[in-house]
């Protein structure tokens, strides 16, 4: 892929920082956008401010990117926050504004939570029935974007559906983050669910690699599962994490009930991403 000018929204976020590092390593020109500048790589151009403003010149202010990689999303770790449904239209209007003003390649971060309760492999055609405000909002945004951009043949639209992300765990709010804190505090046990649910775990560095590969091409569009394609039980993954870090803490199984909107086993169809990574 020729070197491109790529706008990354949510640049200071958990995923954004890793994606920017990967894109810079490939020599791309990055415009990092966020509401604050918390450690944005100095090699990036920056836009610190509100990308959701109704501005007829926003595309120009964002340095006229070739590609818009939209990762920005508040309260992503709080699935039933009121933010999600209250701001879907802002995300949609931002993407439409970018397309109308000149950016013809849009890639947006999705989530397995937009599918909701589902047992087995999630494919591009899997029907959605989200059971959290986060999932409902992401699903609504995807539907709106598909309806809008599929009618615009000059616009490349890619929906990057992510799964259970781990790695760089001090920077996120996952179970691994909580486990690190509990160990540091000297706790001997960690309240846990049954641990039987199986998820598609993907390391943050691998996710960054996959996202970079997806937006580096335009032939494969639409919904793309950014995943490992392999289900692993939560208990196995967490026990492995404890062993690798030589922690002494023990899991207190059954202390918390399993979340009702989590599937017993769910994983992504990795066929598209494998095809892209081969290119």
Q: Into which percentage range does the β-strand content fall?
A: 15-25%
- Structure summary, number of beta strands: 14
Count of alpha and pi helical runs = 9
**Main β-sheet, spatial strand arrangement:** 3-2-1-4-5-7-11
By CATH's scheme, which homologous superfamily of the largest domain applies?
NAD(P)-binding Rossmann-like Domain
The major beta sheet can be summarized as: 7 strands, parallel
Derived from helix and strand composition plus strand pairing, the structural class reads alpha/beta
Overall shape: it is: globular
> Can you name the CATH architecture of the largest domain?
3-Layer(aba) Sandwich
Number of domains: 2
**Could you report the average pLDDT, rounded to the nearest whole number?**
95
Q: Can you give the helix content as a percent range?
A: 25-40%
Which spans of ≥5 residues are poorly predicted at pLDDT below 50? none
Distance between the termini: 10 Å
N-to-C SSE string, H for helix and E for strand: EHEEHEHHEEHEEHEEHEEHEEH
For this structure, the CATH topology of the largest domain is Rossmann fold
Characterise this structure:
The chain is an alpha/beta fold and 279 residues long. The protein has 2 domains: 5-165 and 200-229 and 268-278, NAD(P)-binding Rossmann-like Domain (Rossmann fold, 3-Layer(aba) Sandwich); 168-197 and 231-252, no CATH class. Helices cover 33% and strands 22% of the residues. It contains 9 helices and 14 strands. Strands 3-2-1-4-5-7-11 form a 7-stranded parallel β-sheet, sandwiched between helices. Strands 8-10-12 form a 3-stranded mixed β-sheet. Helix 1 (14-25) links the parallel strand 1 (5-9) and strand 2 (29-34). Helix 4 runs parallel beside helix 5. The longest helix has 17 residues, at 133-149. The model has no long low-confidence stretch (mean pLDDT 95).
């Amino acid at each position: 892929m020729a070197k491109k000018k790529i706008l990354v929204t949510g640049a200071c976020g958990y995923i954004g920082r890793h994606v920017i590092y990967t894109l810079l390593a490939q020599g791309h020109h990055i415009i990092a956008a966020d509401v604050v500048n918390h450690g944005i790589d100095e090699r990036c151009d920056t836009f610190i401010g509100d990308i959701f403003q109704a501005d007829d010149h926003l595309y120009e202010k964002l340095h006229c990117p070739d590609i818009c990689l939209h990762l920005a999303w508040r309260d992503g770790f709080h699935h039933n926050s009121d933010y999600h449904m209250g701001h879907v239209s802002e995300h949609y209007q931002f993407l439409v504004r970018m397309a109308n003003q000149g950016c013809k390649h849009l890639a947006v971060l999705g989530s397995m939570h937009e599918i909701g309760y589902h047992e087995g492999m999630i494919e591009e055609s899997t029907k959605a029935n989200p059971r959290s405000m986060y999932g409902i909002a992401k699903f609504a945004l995807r539907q709106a974007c598909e309806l809008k951009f599929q009618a615009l043949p000059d616009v490349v639209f890619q929906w990057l559906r992510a799964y259970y992300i781990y790695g760089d765990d001090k920077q996120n709010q996952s179970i691994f983050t909580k486990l690190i804190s509990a160990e540091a505090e000297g706790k001997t046990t960690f309240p846990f669910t049954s641990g039987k649910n199986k998820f598609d775990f993907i390391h943050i560095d691998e996710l960054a690699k996959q996202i970079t590969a997806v937006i580096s091409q335009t032939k494969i569009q639409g919904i793309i599962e950014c995943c490992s394609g392999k289900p692993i039980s939560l208990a196995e993954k967490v026990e492995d994490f404890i062993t690798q870090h030589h922690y002494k803490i023990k899991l207190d199984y059954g202390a918390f009930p399993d979340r009702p909107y989590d599937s017993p086993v769910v994983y992504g169809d990795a066929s598209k991403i494998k095809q892209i990574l081969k290119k």
